[in-house]
User: Fold this.
Amino acid sequence: MIRDLTDAEARRAMPCKWGQVDADVIPAWVAEMDYALAPPIAEALADAVAHNVVGYPDFSPGGGLLGEAYAGFAQRHFGQHVDPTWVVPTVDVTAGVRVAINALSADAPVVMTLPGYPPVMNIVEACGRKRLDLVLDADAERAEIDLDQLDHLLDPARGGARTLILTNPHNPWGRVFTRAELEGIRDVVTRHGARVVADEIHAPLVLPGTDPATAPVHTPYLTLDGAADHAVAVVSASKAFNTPGLRCAQIVAGDDATRDRLRSLAAGVNESWSVLGSIAATAAYTDGDEWLAALRTRLGEQRDLLADLLARHLPEARMRPLEATYLAWLDLRAYGEDDPAAAVLERGRVRLASGEMYQPGLTGHVRLNIATSPQRLTAIVERMAAALAS
Ligand SMILES: Cc1ncc(COP(=O)(O)O)c(C=O)c1O
Assistant:
């Protein structure tokens, strides 16, 4: 069910990931997948184009078909009740975070967990807020949010932040935070009367665990007791279904009051989503379950293959357990390169994402995108090993 694109197909399909590298380079950087579109989405888009559905989307308030589709998806996948009218479209997740901060958060610093997704890091400052970084210790055994640090950053007498951007599942930590961890975060947030913007774009991409009994499960922040009045989630089908160019994400409110504030924004603040994006997201949320299940199986296999390849070719590499996403976070400090991504590009002709982008000043780390064929993943690791050995 998951069809690998050929190099020629991928180069045409992805002008960013594949188009920005030389022909002899294997791209494993930006978060796009080298797979063909899920058939229900391709069919919905073809039908829309055949019927000239390329105008403005329906801007009138109301969850509409997209709201109902997301509510169904959230119920089936996360056991979450979402009122369809609480689903407010936005152009993409980065913009949704911006809209949520500007519309809902006090004019005060914003906490972000680093290493983090670079455009969202930048958005905080674009909102005119100071960013306070909650930094993961690169040597920590498990990637966890340090509640004492969070408490410090949200304390009015110290950091003074009023908002936490909570990325869950986390890119690039690879973590799916447990309900207990999220409750701990919620307790600190509510103690300081702060808000949460939960970036849950990777929620559909929780990977199979070795033991189903202990496999990670995504817990939407909004399902925690007491979260509805201080949080929104920003979600999208675009990461799991590989449609980032279609421009439609969703801000999910937890109550009517938050929905009404989001709907009452002045014209021009949040109307950039596209009608084709909305159609694709509706199809994904409604008819995409079977394809998504096959995708998660494939990505789980790719993750396990990566672990084998690293053990064989790069035994000193340290990979954080990849509970979700298709973006592996690798500590390559043992190989002595400050910027291993640059060395691997120059000597191995593989484009990785440099860890420095996710945490300024961090050396020796890379992010590797495993959403490709087993053959390409094998070649990527072999080339990395040759480059780092030379
Ligand atoms: C955690 C996280 N947030 C946001 C985004 C960006 O989403 P969008 O393209 O919808 O802005 C990504 C993209 O990979 C991401 O990993």
